[in-house]
Amino acid sequence: MENVELKEGDVLLIVDVQQDFLPPEGALKVPGGDEIIPILNSWIGRFSKLGLPIVASRDWHPEDHCSFIENGGSWPRHCVQGSPGAEFPDDLQLPASTIIVSKGTTKEKDAYSAFEGTDLADRLRQLGTKRLFVGGVATDYCVKATVLDALSNGFDVVVIKDAIRGVNIAPDDSIAALNEMERQGAAIL
Ligand code: VGL
Ligand code: ZN
Fold it and tell me: Is 10-188 a CATH 3.40.50.850 domain?
């Protein structure tokens, strides 16, 4: 798996690599989140070179979103639509052709999975996707939820282990999330 060969039907899915999730300044920093950017860039390079599709999901909340502590949710205010914190970092080398999927876009509903309340599954089917390579944040929330939904939608999934980072509110949360993804059928690279 380490030197996995890419082929037609492979799609790179980058989950929520946005300023607010990244050290040093993000509102909801995921420890080590900045360390995955060069790794993702090298995967972006491989996919681009082969003309394979790249999808980037983004958390894209309205100002008054229900997941924010001030509105009774569990998270500090983050990834507000159009704010600097919701931007992809400048050093993430997303090509102009990147398909962007926005989630958590309505006040009343949160969405960890990039499939939830989005047209991602249809978009991927239109692209002829067979296998998804997944990196991003957070391992224990949006990456996990996205991977599990990808599997239940019938896609093969490869989780790029060195290209994900977790919040780890409990120290083992990311390990537990990885185990769960693997148990449900994801390959861990
Ligand atoms: C996420 C917490 C709140 C994530 C999004 O992208 O993992 N986590 N919103
Ligand atoms: Zn969120």
Answer: yes
